Structures are given as C-alpha cells and as structure tokens.
Amino acid sequence: MNWQPLRDKFGSAIVDAARTRLLSGAAPQVDKAPFVAAGHAARTVDQLFDALVDEGQLERREMRLCPDCGLELPIEVADDGVCPHCEYDLGEQGKAPVLKTIFLSSGLPSREIPWLVALHGFNTTGDWQEDFGWLLATRFRHRAPAMMHKFPFLSFGVLLRSRHDSLVTQLDLKLRGAMERARASGIEEPPDIIAHSFGSLLLVKLLDRPDSADLIFGRIVVAGSIVRPDYRWEKHLRAGRVEAVLNHCSRKDGVVDYAQWTIPDSGPSGRIGFDDENVINFLETDFNHGTHFDPTTMIESLQNDGLWDRFLRLPVQSLDDSLGGHRPESPWRPAPKAATTIAHVGLILLAIAVSPFVAIKSGVEALWKGTV
After folding, report:
1. Is the full-model pTM beyond 0.85?
2. What value does the mean pLDDT of the chain take?
3. What are the C-alpha distances in Å from 52 to residues 1, 24, 32?
4. Start-end of H helices in the chain
5. Taking the alpha carbons of 154, 156, 158, 164 in that order, is the dihedral positive or negative?
6. N or C terminus: fewer CB in 10 A for the chain?
7. What's the CA gap between 232 and 239, in Å, rounded?
8. CATH fold of 116-323, please?
C-alpha cells in the first residue's frame, strides 16, 4: 500500500503511528483511544480510520452488546432475546442491545519464532555467543530455543573449497541433530537462521548441496554477508526451503570487498546488497564488519520493533512494506577469474610457507599457558 497520500492528508505522525500499529501483528482489534491519548484530534482519528477502511487496511464491524454484562450477543439472539452469557432477558427488561462499532486489522497476526540457529564467522571469540544466548532468553519468553554454531579456527582453510565442503558436512550433521532434538521437544517447525560473515557463505553452500536438499528453514538473516551479490535466493524461496531473506548490509563494511580475492565463491553482498529482488536488503551507513553482533546492536535489532525482530515476527506479506528494500545501484560484476585464481594460488603458497611458523607459535603459546 502507498501510505504517502494519507500522510499528505492527515499528517505523517498519525499515519506512521497507524501504520506501525497495523504492521505490529498485535491483537486484531484496533482502538482509537491510544491515538487520541497521543494528542491527535478525535475528528482526525475518525477520518483516518474511515480512510483505512476504504483502503482495505481496517474492517469496520458493528457489535451488539448485552446491556447487563457487556458481552457480545450472538447473531441468532434477537433484540428482545435472552443473553446466553448472563441470561439477561432484554425483552422482559425492556432494554435494547448496546450498539458499538469496532475496527479490526485486515492483516495477519504476528508470527511466532519457533527456534533459532546462529552461524558466525571464523576466528572469532565466544563473547557474542554468550550475549546472543542471553538476549534470546530474555527477549523471547515464549519457546524460542537457540543453537549457536561457530566454525573452528580455520586460518588458511578458508582458501580451499575442499575445506568448505568439510565444514558444510559438519554443519549439515549438526543441524540434523538439532532438528531431531527440537522434534523430540514438540517443535516441528524449521528453524530461523542468523548467519554472519563466513557463516553466510557456508549456509548457501549447504542450501545448494544435493545431499542437503531435504533441509528446510524458516526466515534467514545474513549480516556482513560474503555471498556473491548475484546469488539467486529465488530458487530456494520458490522451492519452499526458505520463507524469506533479510540481508543486513552496510556501506562501510569494507572487509567483504576482500572476500572474492581470498575466499572461493564469495563476494561483497554485505556491502552492496543482493541483486535478487526476492531479498530484502536493509542498508546501514556506518556499520563495520562486526557491528551486527555487538551487544548494543543486537539489543536494538532484537527488541520490540527492532530490525531483526520485525523481520522474524511480521507476516510475510508485510515484510517489504515494513522494512523497505535497498537495491544495488548497478549489477555486480565479479573480478576476472584469472585474477582471483592468481590471488588464491598466491595466498595458498604463502600459507604453506608460513604454516610451520604458525604451528611453532601455537605450540609455544600452549606451553606458556600450561595447556600441554
């Protein structure tokens, strides 16, 4: 729906407040009182509600209430009948039903988050896992268990597709085990996914792997993504393997620009977005590569009406209207394959040359800390 004509007529403040209320997924009955209490004129509220009925955003319904108990009278009870709730005889008492007009949201109720899987990048500390787990435990008081999966210290393994394949196999097995435990706990729905950095790349490799074609997910958030911007999410959305995709990207995430030169099959979607129109690209202006998982940022993203909260809870039909969508200014073009191949080979040779020194350094550190 185009909300601008209503803003032009009634003002942005009241229209944006109504829009937020309708997209919140809260109780279907929408009351006028909160709008009047917020300082909007009652006449303006009445006119806006009438306009929203005309636009199909609200449904007007006339109710007949019992004059004694105040509950709605079923349609089969005549104006002089007996209230089935309190047995008040309207005909005997000579009182007519109380008429009341209510407004109901035409949208769908908010979605319940079944459970979450968080996939982080490589070579990161475990602090984000503790913060993320605590936030979920305090934010979603209904059932929303979470599985945190951080890939092992990879060092030079990111340079090799064979290592990617091994990690995808590990992820497949871990997800299947988690899904079995979820089903044992009565949770049949597929998990939602929040994937950061290298986790985003392995997630799409998992989706593309024939042996994993039976795995189904709910909604997917990728942040600091290093998936190629021309990746086609549409095939998984149409196949019903994924419900919706949000790409939380940032103009200042320069780290992802180096991905295609160092990691096979990757690209800077975490900075420029995805070309696929089926993906919601939400563009930040000042996030760096790790800002998405800073505790303060996670709180803002997961709190009521936060970006991730809205994406995970809103009805799928409301996502584009509620979150908007950035699109790359021009189609992404990968670097020449010969150039990236030379870069990969050079990095692999460098890794082989320095690996003995890395092993010695790790051994010395372990001895120093008394772990061996």
Report:
1. no
2. 82
3. 11, 16, 12
4. 4-10, 12-23, 33-37, 42-54, 90-93, 127-139, 161-184, 198-208, 234-238, 259-262, 269-272, 295-302, 307-313, 319-323, 337-369
5. negative
6. C
7. 12
8. Rossmann fold (3.40.50)
CB 245 within 8 A of CB 308: no
Interacting residues of 75 by C-beta distance below 8 A, sequence separation 6+: none
Q: In whole angstroms, what is the distance from residue 105 CA to residue 107 CA?
A: 5
Give 153's pLDDT tier (boundaries 50, 70, 90).
very low
| Residue 261: predicted pLDDT | 82
Q: What is the mean pLDDT of residues 253-270?
A: 88
Least confident span in 120-124, 178-182, 202-206, 310-314 = 120-124
Sign of torsion, CA 85 87 91 96?
negative
3-state SS assignment for residue 149: strand
Domain boundaries, the chain: 4-105, 116-323, 346-372
Flag whether pLDDT at 136 surpasses 70: no
- Which residue(s) pair with 29 in the sheet? 104
Q: How far apart are CA 161 and CA 206, in angstroms?
A: 13
Supply 47's token pair: 């006119």
- The pLDDT tens digits for 172-181 are 999 999 899 8
